[in-house]
Amino acid sequence: MGEMLENRTWDEIKVGDRATLVRTCRFEDVELFGIATGDLNPTHYRAEDALRLASHDHIMAQSLWGGSLLSALLGNELPGPGTVYKTQDFAFEQPVEVGDTVTLTVTVVEKTPPTDVVLECGAVNQRGESVFRGHARVAAPTVKVTQPKIELHEARLARRHHVFEDLIRRCADRDPIAVAVCHPCDQVSLEGAVDAARAGLIDPILVGPAARIRAVADEIGLDIGAARIVDTPHSHQSAERAVELCRSGEAEALMKGSLHTDEMMHAVASSQTGLRTGRRISHVFIMDVPSYPRTLLITDAAVNIYPTLDDKVDILQNAIALAHVLEIAQPKVAILSAVETVQSKITSTLEAAALCKMADRGQITGAILDGPLAFDNAISAEAARIKNIVSPVVGQADILLVPDLEAGNMLAKQLSYLADADAAGIVLGARVPIVLTSRADSAKARMASAAVAVLLAHARRNRAAD
């Protein structure tokens, strides 16, 4: 179809006339169809639900999404403008997955005066499999029409943020945990701790210069009367004392205040008095990206600058364990690089291949891995299909393992500032979860980070009780 619409009148139509339409199914199409119709069947929006409820491991489009494309083909092409639908039947033979390319064909098989036309309708996917077939009866136009295409308004989806609200809501039936808040000597860090306490998430232990903490609270009108304060003279000792509270079991999590991250993490990483375990410490961003249908975990973008292959094994296991706590039973991990093929000159592709083979051998457990994958292939099934990448991970990644801190930090911030994403953060691999917030974090992100720490602490309690 060109820039003009031209119909075929009943007199012009001949038995055997044919028209074709090709369309690739995007997740946005499925969502728009659901919004327009009110169809909330979860198999259309989450791969886990498609597998659980329909034994299908990809998101499936609504059956009538494909059928509805016939309206465009009949109304635009054959017979074209002026066509009136009379009847339609369908036999659906194969579900359409997000990313499938569907070819629809209509063929005239019968004409009945004065205006009726019967068309055989069918659709196949990119593999040549029949998606549906049927017949349509329409009243064809009797007046010839040639006119420019109508310009419709552009529709864009703006998904509501929900991931953080879900995290906080999941903590409603859990007891608050004691959290050592390290040096909360500015408004942002002190308010974050108090807000989390008011929400019933934590019992804060404020570790820092007591007079300074109270002065900040008085200045901003914040009531901290119920909070325990552990007085320390300076930030260095605040870090050591907060870590000590976690080592002793008085606190189940550690939260960064207004001191520098390196100063607190130095105390955490001490081999003698810190919170190290046998696993490497790493950071995970929990991202709520409105344009992506899943909670997205990005690691490591804050702690390990240039991780080795061995480091990445621990970084992955930390993120996988977090995904399990977030009730992602079998997270899909995309190991990112600049390309999706293994190339000897790009180290991250070699490490991605090694990590996948390690998963095959049981050296990495609890998730489905694939890589190397470029970012577009990891989050877009359509992009992956264009490149002929067949994988259970593409377009459905729950965890993105980045090559290094620089790449991860830029990716997370690009999503935040260009894709309206919210980001919460947590440090894993230590004896307790560590809430590592930034001065730029929103109040909601700080609350969500605290909620993740609560979920992790309770999961640790449950493991200890087993």
Sum this structure up briefly.
The protein is α/β, with parallel strands linked by helices. The chain is built from 14 helices and 18 strands. Helix content is 36%, strand content 23%.
Q: Which structural class matches the secondary elements?
A: alpha/beta
CATH level 1 name of the domain at 277-429: Alpha Beta
**Segments where pLDDT lies below 50 for 5+ residues?**
none
Output the radius of gyration. Answer: 28 Å
At the fold tier of CATH, the topology name of the domain at 277-429 is Isopropylmalate Dehydrogenase
Q: Quote the beta fraction.
A: 15-25%
Number of helices: 14
Give the full name of the CATH homologous superfamily of the domain at 277-429.
Isopropylmalate Dehydrogenase
Which strands sit side by side, in order, in the main sheet?
15-14-16-13-12-17
Terminal Cα span: 65 Å
Major beta-sheet overview: 6 strands, mixed
Q: State the share of residues found in helices, binned by percent.
A: 25-40%
Q: Mean of residue pLDDT?
A: 93
| CATH architecture verdict of the domain at 277-429 | 3-Layer(aba) Sandwich
Please report the total strand number as a whole number.
18
Shape: elongated
Secondary structure blueprint with pairings:
Layout: E1 4-6, E2 18-24, H1 27-37, H2 47-54, H3 63-76, E3 84-92, E4 101-112, E5 116-124, E6 130-139, E7 146-148, H4 163-170, E8 177-182, H5 187-198, E9 202-208, H6 210-220, E10 228-231, H7 235-248, E11 253-256, H8 261-269, E12 282-288, E13 296-299, H9 309-325, E14 332-336, H10 347-360, E15 368-373, H11 375-379, H12 381-386, E16 399-401, H13 405-418, E17 422-428, E18 434-435, H14 443-465
Parallel strand pairs: 8-9, 8-11, 9-10, 11-18, 13-16, 14-15, 14-16
Antiparallel strand pairs: 1-7, 2-4, 3-6, 4-5, 5-6, 12-13, 12-17
Helix pairs in contact: 4-14, 5-14, 7-8
